[in-house]
Amino acid sequence: MERGKMAEAESLETAAEHERILREIESTDTACIGPTLRSVYDGEEHGRFMEKLETRIRNHDREIEKMCNFHYQGFVDSITELLKVRGEAQKLKNQVTDTNRKLQHEGKELVIAMEELKQCRLQQRNISATVDKLMLCLPVLEMYSKLRDQMKTKRHYPALKTLEHLEHTYLPQVSHYRFCKVMVDNIPKLREEIKDVSMSDLKDFLESIRKHSDKIGETAMKQAQQQRNLDNIILQQPRIGSKRKPKKDAYTIFDTEIGSTSPKSEQDSGILDVEDEEDDEEVPGAQDLVDFSPVYRCLHIYSVLGARETFENYYRKQRRKQARLVLQPPSNMHETLDGYRKYFNQIVGFFVVEDHILHTTQGLVNRAYIDELWEMALSKTIAALRTHSSYCSDPNLVLDLKNLIVLFADTLQVYGFPVNQLFDMLLEIRDQYSETLLKKWSGIFRNILDSDNYSPIPVTSEEIYKKVVGQFPFQDTELEKQPFPKKFPFSEFVPKVYNQIKEFIYACLKFSEDLHLSSTEVDDMIRKSTNLLLTRTLSSSLQNVIKRKNIGLTELVQIIINTTHLEKSCKYLEEFITNITNVLPETVHTTKLYGTTTFKDARHAAEEEIYTNLNQKIDQFLQLADYDWMTGDLGNKASDYLVDLIAFLRNTFAVFTHLPGKVAQTACMSACKHLATSLMQLLLEAEVRQLTLGALQQFNLDVRECEQFARSGPVPGFQEDTLQLAFIDLRQLLHGPLFYVLYLLIKCCLLQATLKHFTFLFFHSL
């Protein structure tokens, strides 16, 4: 029972909930119906809800059908009435349109006539008024037209006067007219237009100056070059240590009147046409190329208009911009000298113009402004030269650049600009010049050493002998007494290297010219650069030749002889430098040449290479040794390889006759010791386990051949038997008592033992 009541209560609640959902669906917007429908499907009675929904839909359909049936007849009657009204309205529209068309046609001619009459009366009235006004205003218009003509023809000074007359005399008489007010309002604009026109001329002048500044600078530098050549002719002496020439009057050739208030010409030109001058004619002055009248006129106009300060600021601002453009070097300036020359010409041209403006105007530019521009130009120029000159690898280009910088500095100093920093920078470029010279001479030395035949120079006549002696300071009384043909002890690279060192000194001297250095400074610079040439460049070239793989003993011997003579020539190089600088070697702080050390080091390296090369040659011959330690034949002569080796050593040491005695003796002793040690190693090799009497006999003959070579004295200077001591250990090994017993045992065929074991016993017994 209770369960039935509970089911009935749940059914009532469900029915009430469905009814609420249906009302919510009917009253809620369609877009928000989703949550409501979700609540239906979340429950378990959605089947019953669908039945209720179908019932509610059928009820609404019945209500709609009843409502439509009730109002249908009234709707049909209304439509019928509207159709009747539309027909009557169309008839009325047609009547109105027809009436309007007839009215327009009938009134068209009248409208045209009235319009023509109106225009005629208006024209008559306007003409009469215009005549009256023109008669009154014609003088004003004529004056204004005159003003415009003067401005058009660039007659700026008369235009200013006309404008003044128009403003104070004519315009007040017709001031009640509107166009006069327009004129009055335009007067400031006309003044500005005059200012703008004159400023346009100034801009043309500035642009022309910018384009032709290199021509102006080139002319100024030619003048400076001519003056310097004239000074050199007068002085007839080098300029090293000389004082700077005084500033010349650069303005006597320019005759423009500064105070003139009238225009110079109807057309202003910044640069005058100048024909190319012949080399033998006088170079025109830099100011002869420039017409400065646009600057003077514009300055006067702005002064009259009370805007002088504005003009000065504008002029200085524009010139600063041009200065920055001029001081910007092209990226490829370092490739050719013309790039540097054009750069310098533009800078000189700029400052020649500014210097002239400074001296021919009153306050347009001042000394402080010029000094400021010059400081900026100096810093940027020096920075650009440091950067671009670092790319120069040709010493000739660096030398030409130095001469161009000197001319650039001399030219600007004529106009009163300080150039000490440029000469300081040249001292920096001097170091770079020395480096480029060292690189160039490195190639020269390399070519000389590579092309040399490393043979004594043959001489067949007195003329050739004097030519060689003239190239290299060599004195040998014994050689002079010898008949022709004869030979110098050194090869061709000695006089060539000596002369190239002198050429290097000359090249260093060329750079020091016109730098206003003292003789001591020039001497110090030349000696330091020469020391670098000797200790770094020449030394490296000699070391490279000595260390070459294909270098022979003959070449090494000749290198030692050559470096010996070059070492002796160092004192003549000292004298050569002293003669061209006039600075005595005894002067305090004078740098000494380090050529002696350079040639000694090269000679020592060659000596070591000779010792090494000899040992290598001996090793090559020993590789041909082919001892048959088990042979039974008793030989009666030395091995072929050893005979060839001894012959090679004899020929080699014969070449050592021109070497210092100590070098030849050391080489000979080193070779003999190395030969003895190598023969000992052959005898004591691990592979030699057995030997015969024939093998010992052959080895003994080879040792005797070596001893005979040592006794023959291949190199003079050894004391008696000194050289034979190199083979004493080997001889003791062969003639010792143990080997004598070994000899008897072998002879009697009683014993064969390992040579290594007996050698151990022998040394142990010692």
Automatic annotation (TrEMBL):
Domain of life assignment: Eukaryota
Disordered: annotated span: 253-280
InterPro entries tied to this protein: EXOC6/Sec15 (IPR007225), EXOC6/Sec15_C (IPR046361), EXOC6/Sec15_C_dom1 (IPR042045), EXOC6_Sec15_N (IPR048359), EXOC6PINT-1/Sec15/Tip20_C_dom2 (IPR042044)
Keywords associated with the record: Coiled coil, Exocytosis, Transport
Residue span(s) of domain Exocyst complex subunit EXOC6/Sec15 C-terminal: 421-734
GO CC terms of this entry: exocyst; plasma membrane
Pfam families to which the protein is assigned, alphabetical: EXOC6_Sec15_N, Sec15_C
Any single GO BP term: vesicle tethering involved in exocytosis
Chain coiled-coil ranges: 82-109
Similarity comment text for this entry: Belongs to the SEC15 family.
Role of this protein: Component of the exocyst complex involved in the docking of exocytic vesicles with fusion sites on the plasma membrane.
PANTHER family, sorted: EXOCYST COMPLEX COMPONENT 6B, SEC15
Protein name: Exocyst complex component
